[in-house]
Amino acid sequence: MDKVKSVKIVTILVLVGIASVLLFVNVGKKDVAEFKSAQESNVDETENKVEVKETIKITSLGNILFHEKQLLGAKTRDGYDFNPSFDYIKDTISGSDITIGTLETTLGGDDFSGYPTFNSPDEVLSSLKNVGVNVINYADNHILDDGANGFLRTLSVTKNNNIDMIGVRSNTNEKGYLVKEVSGQKFGVIAYTYETEKENGQRTINSITIPKQIYGLINTFNYDELDAFYSSIASNIEEMKKDGVSFIIVDLHWGDEYSIRENTTQESMAKKLSELGVDIILGSHPHVIEPYSIITNSKGKKTFVVYSQGNFISNQCADERVTQDENVNSDMEDGTIIKFTLCVSDGDVRLKEYNVIPTWVYREPKSDGLLIHRVIPVSEALNDRGKFNIPDSDYNRIQHALNNTEKILAPNGIGPHEFA
């Protein structure tokens, strides 16, 4: 074999060797990369299993009332349609697992009326359900406006609409609270309304004696007998926990009408409920916005309390004065929606954040001289003046609503907040 052929053969062998080494190295790198990628993937999956956190949404509305002018504006040939009242707010409310509202009326079936004795058409339920309300608080000072029969019919119609209720029950064999299950987590929701002065030793609501046939079917408390109230709610909380409840919401109809500040009794009641382990306290009745706060009890547990969310919808406004106090009455057009985000991690449920959304009731004129009462999300309306078809002349009132709400809620304020 000559030298040229030998060199060629050696060269080929060297090149083949180098190629083999490179192939081995690349394959090895690929295997190592795939192995590391698989390991990293497994780590990510493991970490995700630990870190995955499910969220649950809860929304609370203010007082829901239907005055005479609202009934007239919603009348149709075939009945009543209240859906237009919520067209502009539906997107704000939608998407919640639990949406709670305090409905201050009865559903007596006929002879409909507004203030002072509220009796509304059944269609109010379908409209509230359409906007996402699935829990109604009936423990308020107007639940007896249509007597015992109206009370019992209200509960029956609400059940037929598959809407849960709090603060009331059909018979004493039923629990005095609601257990609402969401994503495997159980929430305890309960409501109470204040009693008025006794008549001949009989308990009253809004100065109406509680009829014997429904005695014990409404959760009430007496400001002069708060120890009895604390005992009652403590017993209910204990029963809730036996039912597996891990998060507790209390709705209270309390406070002073038209006062933009909570009173000392509300504050002391809130502190006591916090000590009992309540997570959220929702206040109603004053018809105007009152502040909210975060209470820390003796065990370090925090409780969110809003003393009053104002009116979600009503005909109460500056144009329908019932007193001479202009500031008070203008506040009655204002309300707040509060949206809570709860975090579920390793079986533990806790409040993660909340969002306070200011609202305003726009009384939209109809061609026949009647009105459509519409709930307006204030910030959206101010950011996009053409969005809700509101005349320019009314925007100063919307701006006033925002300014008024921010002033009352200071220093906590509106908008989203982390729950610290």
Automatic annotation (TrEMBL):
Keyword Phosphoprotein on this protein?
A: no
Superkingdom, according to UniProt?
Answer: Bacteria
Coiled coil ranges:
none
Q: Which Pfam families match?
A: PGA_cap (PF09587)
Domain Capsule synthesis protein CapA: residue ranges: 57-316
Write the record's keywords in alphabetical order, separated by commas. Answer: Membrane, Transmembrane, Transmembrane helix
| Residue intervals passing through the bilayer | 7-27
- What is the protein name stated in its UniProt record? CapA family protein
Q: Which organism is it from?
A: Clostridium cibarium
Q: Which family does it belong to?
A: Belongs to the CapA family.
